[in-house]
Every structure is written in structure tokens, then in C-alpha cells.
Write a structure and sequence with these properties.
The chain is built from five helices and two strands, in the order αααβαβα. With about 120 residues, the chain is an alpha+beta fold. It has a two-stranded parallel ribbon with strand order 1-2.
Amino acid sequence: MFGPGTGTVDPAVLEQSERLSCLIPVSEANSVGAVWKATWRAEWAGKVRVPVMFAFAELDCWFEGSREHLRECVEAFSASPRVDGSFVLGAPHCMELSLWSRGWYARCFGFAMECAVISSSGNKA
């Protein structure tokens, strides 16, 4: 996911690649296009009624990470009281293991804390 010399990950993480990697089952890989992409927006996203936070990594080698796709995904969560979608410049797939990890986790925890405060105050948004 990172590749040596890409400058997106601490070299010590690359030493863990074999331990962290696992092959995706063929049936799961095949279902991405046939099941997930075909149904997530129409059948699932509009039913989500809790806050949602996600990001697309600019250099992701697995998922489409365009700004247009980000906008479409944010809009798909139409029943959610809050949707925070972002585009992380320069970040690779598995951003949580990359040099972007600390910033990403800080954002995740910040979002969770904001949602907790809102929830405990009795607000819906």
C-alpha cells in the first residue's frame, strides 16, 4: 500500500507489512462491484441516522478518491444529522498507518468528542 521510497510512511511500518497483510477472499473482492457499489448509496446510506465522518486519501490505490466522489458520498447520507467528509491531500491508503495517522486520529477523536457533547446536551445535530 505504501511502497518503499514513497515518503508516506515511517520505514519501521514497512517492516510490519507481512504481519499486517492478509489476502482478500476472492468472493469479497468480487462483491465490491456487484454488491457494495450497487447498493450502498440507494439502500444503506440514506438510512444512517447518526453522525458520519470519513475521508478519502488523495493517493489511495484502492478507493476512488476524487473531490466529486467525496461530494456524492457526503450527500448520500441524507438522514444523518451531521456528515463530515474530507479529502486528505497526499495521504495514502491505510492513512491510519502513515505519516498522516496522528492528525487523522486527532480529527477522529475530536469528531467523537463533539458528537458526545451534542448528544449529552440533548441536541440532535
